[in-house]
Amino acid sequence: MKYIYKVALFFVAIIWGTGFVASSLALETFTPNEILVIRFSLAFVVLLVLNFPRLKQIKKKEVLKGSLVGLFLYLGFYFQTVGLQYTTPSKNAFLTAVNIVIVPFLALIVLREKLSYKTFAGAGVTLLGIGFISLESGFQQMNQGDLLTLVCAFFFALQIFLTDIFAKEMKTWSLMLVQMGVASLLAWLSFFFSQGSFTLFDQINFTLTSMYP
Question: Is residue 211 part of a domain?
Answer without folding.
Answer: no
